[in-house]
Amino acid sequence: MNLLKKLTIAGALLVSTTSLWAQKVEDVAPGKRWSIEKANTWYAQHKWINGANFIPSSAINQLEMWQADTFDPTTIDRELGWAEGIGFNTMRVFLHSIAWKEDPQGFKKRVGDYLTIADKHHIQTIFVFFDDCWNATPKAGKQPEPKTGTHNSGWVQDPANIETKPADYPALQKYVTDVLNTFKNDKRILLWDLYNEPGNSNKGNKSFDLLKQVFTWARAVNPSQPISAGLWTWDASDLNALQAINSDVITYHDYEAPDWHKRVVKMLKSHGRPLICTEYMARTRNSTFANTAPLLKEENVGAINWGLVAGKTNTMYAWDTPMPDGAEPKVWFHDVFRKNGEVFSQEEVDLIKKLNNK
User: Fold this and answer.
1) Which structural domain, as residue segments, surrounds residue 137?
2) Exposed, middle or buried: residue 211 (CB in 10 Å: 0-12, 13-18, 19+)?
3) Count of the separate structural domains present in the chain
4) pLDDT by residue (tens digit) across 202-254?
5) CA-CA distances (angstroms) from residue 23 to 64, 76, 94, 183, 206?
6) What does UniProt give as the signal peptide span (predicted)?
7) pTM summary value
8) Distance CA 215, CA 148 (A)
9) CA-to-CA separations, 146 to 132, 151, 172, 181, in angstroms, rounded
């Protein structure tokens, strides 16, 4: 699709989310959304939000990160220390309902332990609840080993890749409500990201009702932190409208080159709310630190790249370009550090430090 057509679709979407869809979406997802003034006052209290999507290099997915047997505070501490060293102040971290279901109290303790470590490194956290990406059948227990040279071979959806039914909602509501009530006034948490890329994995509008429900559950708790669900694809008009009209702060994903990305920023600013890009930086798609991070800082848009340390998720490899021999790609797709703390690019790290006044 050419750029002009993409922009036309995106522009039409943004008009719809502020007018035609507003009443419909508010009807299906009731709750007290933050005013524009409150959202912008909150945003002004933070220095430029900059960081990465984080999972320790020792974990292949969210379950391995959060289950009791594989929770790894030593690695988390070491790797967040590297993040602090280059000026990162925010990490986006995925939770998982199965880890909570297996051990609610232990899960919440581990979340608290993670927050203590992050706070020691002057890092706030964006927590993510649901996720429609990658493998369809998450299971408790020992997680698989990475597939050689394959991007995110073990990442798991939450809930599983089925059409979530109303009968499933009470258990999911209990999970979301319990976690939110436990941490709803915790200043170490920057924002709640309720649903990552709803409709992905060919789910489409099958995710609409769960997205609506999680906004409703979160509003009922009324956390002190803002809530959001990030826009990620411009052709999902129903989902996009629901996300945009119910988010306190507008979050979004963009792995495109800077000319396209800048136009997206300009259009999203029509909502009048703070913007945080919660996923960007795919080097071989011409979304890099060098061409995008300065743009986002100039526009006062939060910048959260994917990811931090090259580990078991294999995200140094591109989405659709596996390397079966496991050779290291000449140009990494994502990530900043190696597992030993060395950086992929000193030039990139120097830029990140400069942007963060480090």
Assistant:
1) 3-355
2) buried
3) 1
4) 999 999 999 999 999 999 999 999 999 999 999 999 999 999 999 999 999 99
5) 41, 44, 31, 31, 21
6) 1-22
7) 0.94
8) 38
9) 20, 9, 28, 35
